[in-house]
Every structure is written in structure tokens, then in C-alpha cells.
Amino acid sequence: MTQTLTRPATVSPPPPAPPRRKKHRDPSRYFRLHLPLVLYLLFTLIPFYWMLVFAFRPTGETALVPWPITFEHFDTVWNGIGFGLFFQNSLIIGVGTLVVVTVFALMGGYALARFKFRGQRVFLLALLCTQFIPGAMMLIPLFVIFKSAGLLNSLTGLIIADTAFQLPLALILMSGFVRNVPVELEEAAMVDGCSRLRAFFAVTLPQLRPALVAVGSFAFIGAWNNFLFALMFASRQDKFTLPVGLSYALGEFNTDFGALAAGGVVAAVPVVLVFAVVQRFLVQGLSAGAVKG
Amino acid sequence: MRTRTWAPYALIAPTLVLMAVFLVYPIASVGWFSLRQHTVTQPWKNGFIGFENFRRMLFDDPLFWQSLMFSAKWVVVEVGLQLVLGLCLALIVNETFVGRAMARSLVFSPWAVSGVLTTGIWILLYNPSTGIFQQLAQWGIGDPGTSVLGDPATVFPATVVTELWRGVPFFAILLLADLQTIPNDLYEAASVDGAGRWRRFISVTLPHLRDAIVLSTLLRAVWEFNNVDLIYTLTGGGPANQTTTLPLYVARKAVDSHDFGYGSALTMAGFAILLFFSILYLRLSKFGSRA
């Protein structure tokens, strides 16, 4: 019976693609669909394009399509201002938070979805309540905690803070995902003599792949983008993250738009790329029922 | 499955510890500070003063009311527009057309961009000397040297548009995910019954989306209420405190004037307001009552 473990039956086949409508020649589609889409694309892309133009255009020029392009601004921010180091810090924090949040959310989400235990409702309520806690307003007590724990100016400290604030929502999402994997599969594996742990790894975990991608990317993007904690708890320049570096670029180099734009490109490229890859999983995963909790 | 009851507790233990240390304890300590006079620069005056901070907040502090009013306006305008545009966008990219996957990736991408980076991008776009309005002026549209962030008349809409750019994709993603769970038979049945496109939207799509809409607007409202990154870096609360939200005011009290006691009272007020309106909203919208 090990076959059922190594190759779990596909329980929820992807819904068939909606049949292509015959109305493709319907002229009203241009007004309902194409025109608003193009307008929205312009709204989305013009700001990005504006940043790219500034980042690659030599100082003093005003061409809307810069040619030849220059990399002088990237040299300024990466080597001169230290964005190379900020990039590294942000990457460590992003990946660290991704790993910790995903593992803890998987554990807690599994507990919520598969067990009935005393205090479950209180726990769920507490998770929801945390969503109302304003991070910005918690800075003072958090600063005191971080100082006494020796976590100021430490990347570990920032990973912990980001994890604490992202975990509750990630856990709620993950419990929805786990609930969506039929428990019967796991029970069948356990009847066949698997331990619960083994059943989980062999049967449930493979089905959770889109969920892991969705929750993990949420965590990475959240940590990569976090500004307030990084600003308050890591004031030494060698611990700066990209958003903090950018905020200084906004203030100090207010006239050097080329450097600001190049710094922006450095900060944007990883998350936008990650996002472009995972957004499909994100939509799939969320529509698998997590939105309804 | 009540076997081995210690297992769930072991599994949620890391979450509980993190929540206790970084969420519950700070809230409790803010609650304690809010009843004290506590100014870092004048420690000899520190001590328990009961509800004096709250009295001062309610009766002697016009900036509290002003920032609260602005926060309310910000949340209502921002969440309302994000919902409407996000729903439209979700409906559009739910249709079948050539290049749909590409279009989705592009229109959703600002969601991944941080508040500070959003500010950076839009400062480049808005700046009076080399921004988009200068470019438009060169083409004969508008006046040269327009500074939308410096002019009290335009700073609010300019800030709203900036946050929309980043916020609409959030709604579009969540609503698109829910749109995809609507069974096609429902639409077909409605079509057979003679329902037009608008009718199908009102009778099939909207009721199905209700819980997703309630949940996403609530999460977003809380988030926009607490949003500091963007406003702080874009306008700094100015000009003349016009765009100061309650969290921004708190941060300024705490960080600039080191008035921890009063800042904590403001925090408790913000927390209480959020909790009150969230419960009210969930009750009114009958969340989760869908059969």
C-alpha cells in the first residue's frame, strides 16, 4: 500500500478552463475590456518607466527615451552610498523571515485545521485581534524590549520582529489551506501504519506546495519592504535595509534624482520579479478557499 | 481527533511565545504608560496620573481631533476607491484574452512595492522641475512648475493617487481569487433565465463575493489606518499638518517630543477606535452568514 503514499491521488483536479466565448468579435469588448485595461496598464507602468528613465539617463539630460544609457547612478548607489550592503541585509532578513514564518505558520495552521483543542477559539480570536495592533504605535515598547534583549542593530532582531508581526495572518491563511486538503488522505495513510508525522510529510505537504509559495512570498515581500522596524531598530549604517537607505536618499540626495531612481530599481527588481513568478500561485492558493477562512 | 492532546499546543507554541512577547506585552505596557506622565526629557515629573492623558487628549488637544478626522477621511476615501477600482480590475483580468497572464503580472506588480519605494517613484513623477507635469506642460497641458505635493489644494488627491497605485492590486488579487471560485453553471443558468450582463453581475457575482469584500475591506481599512511609511516619507504630515494621521501624530509625540505617556494614550485611543469599528462592521455586514 505504499503506492498510495508515494503517489497520492489527485483529489482536486484544476477546474477546466472556461470555454472560450463565441462573442470574441463583440465590439463592446473594446470598451468593457481593452480600453480600461490599457488605461490601467498606463497608470501602473508610467511610474515604473519614469523611474527607469531617471535611473539610466545621464545627469542633466531630459530625453524621455534615454540613449545611450548610463550605469553611473547604479555605481553611485551600489558602491558609493552602500546599497550593495543594504541589498545584502534586506536579502538576509527577507529569506530569514520567509523560512521562519512559513515553518511556524505550517505548524500552527496544521494544529488549527486538524485538531480540536481547548482554547482554540481564544487562540483564533487572538490571532485576529493582532491585526488591529498598529505596528507604528508599538515602537516605544518594542524598542525597550529590543534594547534589553540586545537585539538592536541586529539582523536577527529584525527577522524576529518581522516574523512576530506577520505570523498571525500567515497562520490563519495556512490553516485555510490545510483544511482544504482532505483529511481522509492522511487518515488512510495512518490506517496503513504511517505515523501522523510521516502521513503529513508524505500526503499533505506535497498538496500544500501552492500554499507554501503564497505564504512564503507574502512573508518575504513583507520583510523586504518593512520600513519602520528597520528604521527604529537598526540605526547603524552597516545594518541598513533598502527601504531605510532609500528614505535617506529621499531626504539627503533630494536633488540627485538619478541616484534615487537607481536605488529604487535596486529595491524594486527582486520583489517585482518574485511577485511576477508567484502571483499565479497566490491567486490559485487564495481561491482554493483561504479567503473564506 | 482528540488523540495526543499535547500536539496542537506544541505546534502553536512558537506562535504563542512570539505573540506574547512582541504583541501582548507591548500592548499591556502601552496601556500602563497611558496612565502615567512619562517624558524622557523630564524624568523627575514621571508618575501615575490616572486618566489625565485621556482628559487632555479629548478636551485640550485640537491636533488629536484633526489627525483623527484626517485618518477617517484617508481610510474611507482610500479603501472605497481601492475597492471599486480593484473590483473592476479583477473583473477585467478574469476575462479571457490574449496576454492575460502577462497583463495580470503587470497590473498586480505595484502590490509588491514598499511604501518608501512608492514614495521614491512618485516623487520622481511629481517633482516640479523634471516630473510628469513639467513634461505635460512642455506639450502644452497644464502650467510649468506645478508642485502637487507643495500645494495644499492638491496634496491630498496626489497622496491618495499614490497609495491607490499600490493598493488597488491588493483588492484585485483577493477578489480575482474569489471570482474564480464562482461555478460557471451559475452564470449559464442566469443566462438561460434571460439575465443580461449587468443582471448577472448583481445577482450572481456580487453576492458570491460578499464575504471576500467584507474581509478585504476590513483588513485594508485597518492597514490604511495604521499606514505610516507612505505618508511619512511623501508629505511628512504636511503642509501645515494637513496630512497628519493619528499614527503619524503618535510617532511624532513619541519620537520627537519623547512624550511616552501621552503618546501611549493616543495609541490606546487608536486601538480602541479600530476595534470598535471592526466589530461594528463585522456585525452590520453579517460576515460569515452566507450559507
From TrEMBL, chain A:
Designated name of the protein: Carbohydrate ABC transporter permease
UniProt cross-references to InterPro entries, sorted A to Z: BP-dep_ABC_trans_perm (IPR050901), MetI-like (IPR000515), MetI-like_sf (IPR035906)
UniProt region (Disordered), positions on chain: 1-25
ABC transmembrane type-1 domain span: 87-278
Pfam families: BPD_transp_1 (PF00528)
Family the entry assigns: Belongs to the binding-protein-dependent transport system permease family.
One BP annotation, GO: transmembrane transport
GO CC term (a single one): plasma membrane
Species: Lentzea alba
Ranges of Low complexity composition bias in the record: 1-10
Transmembrane feature ranges: 30-52, 91-113, 122-146, 158-178, 211-234, 257-278
Superkingdom to which the source organism belongs: Bacteria
Matching PANTHER family: INNER MEMBRANE ABC TRANSPORTER PERMEASE PROTEIN YCJP, MALTOSE TRANSPORT SYSTEM PERMEASE-RELATED
Subcellular location, record wording: Cell membrane
Lineage: Bacteria, Bacillati, Actinomycetota, Actinomycetes, Pseudonocardiales
Membrane topology, from the record: Multi-pass membrane protein
